[in-house]
Design goal:
The protein is α+β, with helices and mostly antiparallel strands. The chain has a domain at about 5-165 and about 230-240: NADH Oxidase, CATH 3.40.109.10. Helix content is about 45%, strand content about 10%. The protein has helices at about 5-10, 25-35, 55-65, 70, 85-90, 105-125, 140-145, 190-210, 220-225, 235-240, and strands spanning about 45-50, 75-80, 130-135, 155-165. A 4-stranded antiparallel sheet has the order 1-2-4-3, with helices on both faces. The termini are far apart. Belongs to the flavin oxidoreductase frp family.
Length: about 250
């Protein structure tokens, strides 16, 4: 099998680290590689902030629901939706940038952040390190915006905890929904999706039992835990950083 395909097919989230350091040159290579990720209209509306200071990592952990692996990782990367850069570019030629004021702009920032974090993870895994994506930073956007001294039009979207992974064999990779309930041709198949959810629920429970992780929620349990009620309240934090979710803005 092609080595790149093998790397991608065997990716998994790593939450247990040895405490060893990532080589500085490897971290720089990871970051430079990630910078080649695609972005909407090549606007490059993503920036990264890397944190390695242990006291700061502890604080990030506390603000992210006390996830211990954040405190124990070697480096934490904030992936920022950064419209400060493109706003400056537009202003420098006497024009405005309405991107951060629109629903479309907020979506663009989130999409580009997702592309970026995937590029980071691929580079991390290629060099033999481990990583897990941290979405919980969105529960403390205001605090992180202050901690990182972010200007208007910049907001943290997602984080990544990196380190040297502990050797923790699993019975198999964590299951995914059945392939035929994930990929469709020509039209969506709701029935297949429903059948896939039921099959996946059973498979997740089996995987959990195989790996002695009964404390972990099943697929349905996790969905209900996160989405039964509003999970993160973002509107105030977004607006405090200059973002809005409008579809129309007064013509200039």
């Amino acid at each position: 099998m092609n080595e790149t395909i093998k790397l991608l097919q065997n990716r998994r989230s790593v939450r247990e680290f040895t405490g060893e350091k990532i080589k500085d040159e490897d971290l720089e290579l990871i970051l430079k590689t990630a910078q080649r990720a695609a972005s909407s209209v090549n606007g490059q509306q993503i920036s990264l902030i890397v944190v390695r200071d242990k006291d700061k990592l502890k604080k990030i952990s506390e603000l992210s629901h006390n996830q211990k692996h954040i405190e124990e990782c070697d480096a934490f990367i904030f992936v920022l939706a950064d419209f400060y850069r493109s706003t400056y570019a537009a202003n420098s030629v006497g024009k405005r940038n309405v991107g951060p004021k629109t629903a479309d702009g907020v979506v663009v920032g989130a999409v580009d952040a997702g592309i970026m974090v995937n590029a980071i993870e691929t580079a991390v895994n290629a060099l033999g390190y481990g990583m897990t994506v941290i979405g919980a930073i969105r529960s403390s956007l205001k605090e992180f915006s202050e901690m990182l001294e972010l200007p208007q039009y910049v907001i943290p979207i997602v984080g990544a905890a990196l380190g040297v992974p502990k050797d923790r064999p699993l019975s198999r990779l964590k299951p995914r929904v059945p392939f035929d309930s994930f990929v469709f041709f020509d039209k969506y198949d709701a029935k297949k999706v429903e059948e896939g959810v039921e099959e996946h629920e059973k498979d997740m429970v089996a995987w959990r039992n195989e790996n002695n992780t009964s404390q972990l929620p099943s697929y349905k349990e996790m969905i209900v835990r996160i989405y039964e009620n509003p999970h993160n309240k973002l509107v105030e934090a977004l607006k405090s950083q200059g973002f809005d979710v409008l579809d129309e803005i007064e013509e200039k």
